[in-house]
Amino acid sequence: MNTIKYLGVAGLAAVGLFATQAFATTCPTAPGTGTQTQGAPVCIAPVGTDGAGTGLQALLDGITQSGTPNIDVYHGQTSPSAYWSTSASGLGENRIMFEIAGYANTNSFGIFDPTDSTKRLQLFGGSASHNAATTLMWNGDGSFIATYLDGNGQSLGTAGATFGATNLFGYYLDNGHGQIFYSVLGLNSDGTPHMVAYQGNGQTRLDNVKTGQYATFGSSDYILAWEDLPFGASDLDYNDFVVMVESVHPVPEPATLGMFGFGVLLIGAAVGLNRRRRFNIG
User: Fold this and answer.
1) pTM for this entry
2) Residue ranges covered by each domain of the chain
3) Long-range contact list for 119-124, CB < 8 A, 24+ apart?
């Protein structure tokens, strides 16, 4: 009886800690559109300023093979999605899916060092057509190499960077107009999320806009959808830069790990207190 009681108190404390971390967001009206945004943890406008059929849900529905599950952009979001790591193979491909933005010719996308956000490795830059895909390879010592590929899979060149967090990185989008946005919410100067992620389920089949063939959206594949303007200027439709990244996975944020550890500590302390009380009963 006492064990259940004390575990319950500690459990409630831990749940309370997790609840404070949850994104209990009241979605705003998308600036400049009059459209109510939907979903959580990231609020997304069904239709932005680009017109009918250009909302993120409509775009993804349009390339989903009939008879396979649709991606739910409101309730199917991956969280956490701030920090990432490569898969065991250390090599994955990245491919732009959509880029519906006034900054399409200036947006650049890549990864950054969590220990120093000024250290970056660009995966795509400028016009989306300058390279069809980019592979990202981790060498096992903190160094990453990007290889830029043309439509035939031939190399257009490489670039590299060495990060201080070994196989750990975040994603960034630079709109080329003095504003850089990050997968890590705390690094965004406007205090709002600019990226939303979706994990593959192994069942949905998506049309590759480059090849015109359907491929399975696998569990190590993620779609990253971005807003390339700060809050107040953006329409929150997250279709400005949408990219498929492969052979990666998100890792828990340090704050989440710390919170989990504290919750476990509370449970352990409660159990220990109960044991001492039980042993003192004559």
Assistant:
1) 0.81
2) 1-30+254-282, 44-251
3) 119/161, 119/163, 119/164, 120/161, 120/172, 121/146, 121/159, 121/160, 121/161, 122/146, 122/159, 123/94, 124/94, 124/96, 124/243
